[in-house]
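Example complex used in Figure S2.
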Amino acid sequence: MMNWKIAAASAALAVAVAAPAHAGATLDAVKQRGFVQCGANTGLPGFGAPNDKGEWAGLDIDYCRALAAAVFGDASKVKFTPLTAKERFTALQSGEVDVLARNTTITLSRDTDLGMNFIGVNYYDGQGFMVRESLGVKSAKELGGASVCVQTGTTTELNLTDYFRSNNMELKTVVFEKSDETRIAYDEGRCDAFTTDASGLAAERSVTKNPAEHIILPEIISKEPLGPAVRHGDNEWEDIARWTLNAMIIAEEFGITQANVDQIKAESQNPEIRRMLGVEGEAGKQLKLNPDWAYQIIKQVGNYGESFERNVGEKTPLRLSRGLNQLWSKGGLLYAPPVR
Ligand SMILES: N[C@@H](CCC(=O)N[C@@H](CS)C(=O)NCC(=O)O)C(=O)O
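Predicted assembly (340 residues):
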């Protein structure tokens, strides 16, 4: 706790010196530089990791590409800074990155002390546990006395302690700074269990030596609403970041995809679709962007559902179902306000 506070205080000082604070300064700086600098994961398959061609890929990565498409009309105008759990907040506060899109849970202290503005949720998650099937454990309640591998600087570490304490179970944490170290230690048998967000468990399991040896226990012990964040102090940039995610969700609601966006733009008589795609109204201007900002997001990156299926869905090694991340109209939690 103490370390976080010190880090937050020194980083807050850095903000005052280094980061553009007034509204619009980030957009100006991004435009002048010619690309968005996005804080990413060091390598979490499905969310943010270089693929086998060495290109960054993932749900969070797509969000950053969408932001670049909105600002520049070109989804390739983005660079990625790999950040560990511990490094990520300072990187955003100091102005090293314009946006943090790195499986980061929205919490009160991050929103306040750490000076972040979360722009929405791009993955509703919760923390779980993975064990070797051969351990014979069927429930997290049976983990009393177990050693658990966990990454520092995360909500995971804090929830783990809370969960064991509230269930009167003895806990031996084995703490690492990097996700690779954490997974490798678990994979080599240095801990009985591995804990992180359930999506992270699916991702990490997919890169263990033998994924079939591991099971994910049924308990979800926390709420982990993961979302991109910008820093305090620049409302215009925050608006752009927020409506980038909203546009991806709204596009899915309307069934607008990469493949049909041109046709829908040319033919749709739906007023909200026309406003969003820049055929009528001033949404782009209101965001200080080009009229086709949302068209470019959809054309170049796709809607939320397309990004989900491509990166983490049932046909990927993560095999995640939509669950809570389904649209509100289909029983999930994803809901974006209207373009009006
Ligand atoms: N959502 C949690 C956990 C996020 C997190 O950092 N998880 C780890 C384990 S899956 C991770 O992504 N590590 C990758 C890295 O450090 O680059 C948080 O915001 O604190």
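The mean pLDDT is 94. The radius of gyration is 20 Å.
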